[in-house]
Amino acid sequence: MSTSFAAPAAGHPYHALTWRLLAALGLSQLIAWGTLHYLIAVFAAAIAAEMHWSSARVQTGFALAMLVMAACSYTVGRWIDERGGRLPLMSGCWIGALGCTVLAAVDRYPVYLSAWVLIGLGMRLALYDAVFATLAGIAGTAAQRAISVVTIMGGLASTVFWPLGQHLLERFGWRGALLCYAGFLLACSLLHLAVPKVARRPAQAGPATGAVASHPPTQPAVAWLYTYCAAGVVFLQTGMAAHFIELLRHAGWSAGDAVWLATLFGAGQFCGRATIALWAFRFNPVALNLVPAVLLVVSIATYLGGGGLMAGATTFAFLYGLSNGTATYTRGAMPLVLFDPAKYGRTVGLMLKPALALSAVAPVAFGHGIDRWSAHGLATGILVLALSLLAASAALYRLAPRPAVT
């Protein structure tokens, strides 16, 4: 039996996608997201208590990491386009491990910030967008289903690493736990040996090579609309991740009930990504992007109208998770049909700069919104943003080309 995940076109110059490759990338995303992106959620309180720093001071490190991701986004994308993803992905794990090691040894605030600079660079090299660019370089538009499969495992990172990190914290302290995280990342780097060494795509290739034909120029309006959609989604994802349970508590739920309801967010996210991996990947991702936009509007409207009721709260949590899980896929898959897949890394890297920069301030902005306007007022603002994202998604669908998706 062939191990090919998706057979390439006749004469295609790249390696076929395989289940071995996707399993390795999926597992690497679970580890990288768990040890890097979710690190602050597990260890922030312990770091603040030992170092006698305020919560805001501790969280500033994570914000700095997001700004570093924005600053290096284009350069990383271009590197992957030109050299393939194996070395960048491995480097992200190595740099992330170094960042965790420096963080474990921190004794002054400047050292703390320097650790987050390393972690930010590691995240940009090792997380989803680098993997998406790698898959685009391997398979072009055929990478759509592969993207959906990889995001399923990555979506389990908080489920695995929040309790695992808490266990390590209780047993070894936050410094020892961070050294364990560094070890996980070093082991994770070996998973990327499954990534094929992809040579740079020839600038001009004839039919004999099976190269994909040159992509037509992209309308500026299409580029702007995609950038707006990506920035809005990432901003909401980061802000809601920090305040999701708090929004439920402001709706009248106890801390225990809010945590239980929050598990429906993860269930919805998993269901969304699994559905895409099973069959919805066949649809044009630009059209499919309307689904998470609609779900986002409905979920926030449900919170505003009935967040204090069990039916309303469960619907809000599940539908928001469904929207978030689907949006992660469409954000990665849309560039495959909107832009030249051969330039996926640099194109998306440039367009993600504002998204990553906004994500750095999202948790603070959401907290300020709750303090100033209440949770209901913040949710109203989110609904307005969600409606604008739905309008932008509809406009993007109208303007985008209609590729054949197989």
Automatic annotation (TrEMBL):
GO molecular function, one term: transmembrane transporter activity
UniProt KW Transmembrane helix keyword: yes
UniProt-listed Gene3D superfamilies: MFS general substrate transporter like domains
Domain of life of the organism encoding this protein: Bacteria
Pfam family, one: MFS_1
Signal peptide start and end residues: none
Claim: Ligase is one of the keywords in the record: no
InterPro entries reported for this sequence: MFS (IPR011701), MFS_trans_sf (IPR036259), Proton-linked_MCT (IPR050327)
Keywords: Membrane, Transmembrane, Transmembrane helix
Protein name: MFS transporter
Biological source species: Caldimonas thermodepolymerans
